[in-house]
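Continuing the batch. This is chain 6 of the set; chains 1 through 5 are on the previous pages. Same settings as before, nothing changed between runs. Recording input and output for traceability.
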Amino acid sequence: MIKGLYESHLPVKNLEISIGFYRKLGLEFAWRDEDTVFLWIGEGKSWLGLWEGKEYQTTYHPSLRHTAFRVTYEDLQDSLEWLESIQVEPVPFGRRTSIEPFVRPNQGNASVYFNDPDGNSLELMCYIEVPNELKHITEKLSFKDWENLVGIT
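Output for chain 6:
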């Protein structure tokens, strides 16, 4: 029945600033009205709705103000350089202190985090293949540690 994510929504303070930021990320304009804009994440597949209003002041919580964009593992390897090239600063996730991309073996994914101009949490995320004998690992591993563990050179 469900084939994927159609849309996600985030609150913003200023549509013009937010449109510029998300266009830097490569999202394409879909449509706009006076206080809302939709940008294609993948044209005809999924889009992001940005809503201008005081709701951007809502205290951050991942269930309220978070969006993850799917990328490839190779993209994630280059993500810090890409973010720097578009003048976006990565941020540590949760209690981590490192901004480096990391792997969650027990979830079968890898991520790097950054924020939009209004403090909405954004994530670049990819699926990874995890051997059955490593799926019990709940700690977050650096790419270097992960690649050493699975023998990627």
